[in-house]
Design brief:
Blueprint: E1 28-32, H1 45-48, H2 51-60, H3 63-68, E2 91-97, E3 100-105, H4 116-119, H5 128-132, H6 136-142, H7 148-159, H8 176-188, E4 197-201
Parallel strand pairs: 1-4
Antiparallel strand pairs: 2-3
Helix pairs in contact: 6-7, 7-8
Length: 206
């Protein structure tokens, strides 16, 4: 599992007759593996790709949010907008004995993960939870004339076959192949920063 590096000045691999040409044209190298896209229970495609930051700002700029004094942080389950009872997860994890656990929908937020004040703010008739329950295909149409970067990321996700996935789908329910495609889309949506890059896919899917 050791990493063998070639001489950048010659492109020659040590103890090998293999020569790699054109490496001066590669700006960066990315390894796109199938590990989960997030470490927390509230991670999802919207947060991993950076779309959620922009979505929060859109909500914070609505007249209702300004009237209530809500900022972008109020539209995050990991911050002020998250349910205090379930920590924004949407359910409670209970131990029922003998090493067994059950998940029960949070009775305070009814499984939404947000406080009522946050839920009351609408963006073109949609709450923050409505947005997270949208599929990539639906979100592409919804944000078409609202935010160009969100639309760009959504269209890139569509191109790698992820149009069916919800923006707020929790990381534990996302397969390794799906995680890999989400990671690839995140990089490819960076525009000019994605050029002159080498992408190495671990067990690449179709």
């Amino acid at each position: 599992n050791s990493i063998v590096k070639c001489d950048p000045s010659t492109g020659i691999m040590p103890n090998s007759k293999t020569i790699i040409e054109g490496i001066e044209n590669i700006r960066r190298c990315y390894v796109i593996d199938q590990r989960p896209i997030g470490r927390s229970q509230t991670s999802c495609p919207a947060t991993y790709t950076g779309m959620m930051d922009r979505v929060r700002k859109l909500f914070a700029n609505t007249p209702k949010a300004k009237e209530l004094g809500l900022k972008a942080g109020n539209f995050s389950v990991n911050s002020k907008g998250g349910c205090r009872f379930c920590k924004g997860i949407g359910y409670k994890h209970y131990h029922v004995g003998w090493g067994n656990f059950i998940d029960v929908k949070c009775e305070k937020c009814e499984g939404y993960g947000f406080v009522p004040e946050t839920m009351s703010v609408l963006l073109d008739g949609k709450s923050i939870c409505d947005i997270l329950n949208m599929s990539i295909d639906e979100a592409t149409d919804f944000f078409e004339n609202k935010d160009s970067q969100i639309t760009k990321i959504c269209k890139t996700l569509q191109r790698v076959g992820m149009g069916y996935m919800k923006l707020g789908q929790k990381t534990p329910t996302i397969s390794g192949g799906e995680s890999q495609r989400i990671k690839l889309a995140k990089e490819l949506s960076k525009g000019k920063l994605a050029t002159r890059c080498l992408y190495i896919l671990d067990e690449p899917t179709t």
